[in-house]
Inverse folding.
């Protein structure tokens, strides 16, 4: 599935080229081109597929900005541990400004981390914080691997699960949140992206076999704020439409029923 992460890098590279970019990711194009996927977009002949692709790309841009802001607030509050679950081609260790004592853990399987390492070497990329790759399958004992890599659960952590939970069955989502909660001291932050049933049905129905949307299985709870409260988190939920408008990228099409509740979640451990 890590080829999907390279596709996300392509979207971030295109956003970086805009004059009014919501963020700039100077490594994104290197990740996209190194995989040989830069020119592999599907044919634009299928208008419905093209529109779905544009919608997914737009959501990636908005969620990236949303989680960037969350991490900046976490840093400002004194959080110095960051964990990216299913890190993929995320380059926040390299493109964001971090307090010098920040430790950023990138948790993913060995294949994407090795591919990423080769691109980083090729680009001569230098992290702006202490970056610690943790090669482990998220279906295994990743908390143990994270602890072995130096994560301290007694200190607040900023956790990010971006574009991840929608690929996991419901029981795996519950297990992940339980594990994250166990490893989170008071004051920890959590950023999640989740998909509604309507989004999964609308994008998954016409998805090509093996494509990202064809693997979407997990819908968000009816009440994500209440769900997180049950695990000890005080959460806020936002729709893509709300955040896009706040970032100066308003969505012109009428609201869809599946846009409620919001799939962009920020939370604080109490």
């Amino acid at each position: 599935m890590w080829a999907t992460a390279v596709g996300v890098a392509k979207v971030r590279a295109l956003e970086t080229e805009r004059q009014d970019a919501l963020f700039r990711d100077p490594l994104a194009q290197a990740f996209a081109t190194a995989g040989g996927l830069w020119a592999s977009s599907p044919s634009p002949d299928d208008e419905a597929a093209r529109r779905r692709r544009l919608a997914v790309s737009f959501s990636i841009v908005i969620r990236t900005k949303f989680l960037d802001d969350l991490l900046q607030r976490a840093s400002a509050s004194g959080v110095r541990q960051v964990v990216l679950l299913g890190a993929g081609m995320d380059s926040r260790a390299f493109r964001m400004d971090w307090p010098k004592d920040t430790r950023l853990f990138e948790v993913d399987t060995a294949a994407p981390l090795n591919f990423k390492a080769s691109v980083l070497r090729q680009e001569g990329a230098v992290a702006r914080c202490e970056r610690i790759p943790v090669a482990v399958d998220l279906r295994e004992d990743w908390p143990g691997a994270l602890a072995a890599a130096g994560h301290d659960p007694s200190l607040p952590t900023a956790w990010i699960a971006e574009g991840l939970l929608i690929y996991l069955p419901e029981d795996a989502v519950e297990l992940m949140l339980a594990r994250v909660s166990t490893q989170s001291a008071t004051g920890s932050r959590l950023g999640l992206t989740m998909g509604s049933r309507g989004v999964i049905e609308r994008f998954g129905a016409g998805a090509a076999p093996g494509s990202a949307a064809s693997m979407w299985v997990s819908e968000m709870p009816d009440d994500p704020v209440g769900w997180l409260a049950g695990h000890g988190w005080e959460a806020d939920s936002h729709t893509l439409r709300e955040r896009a408008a706040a970032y100066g990228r308003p969505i012109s099409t009428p609201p869809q029923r599946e846009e409620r509740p919001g799939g962009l979640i920020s939370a604080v451990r109490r």
In short: The two ends are 34 Å apart (CA to CA).
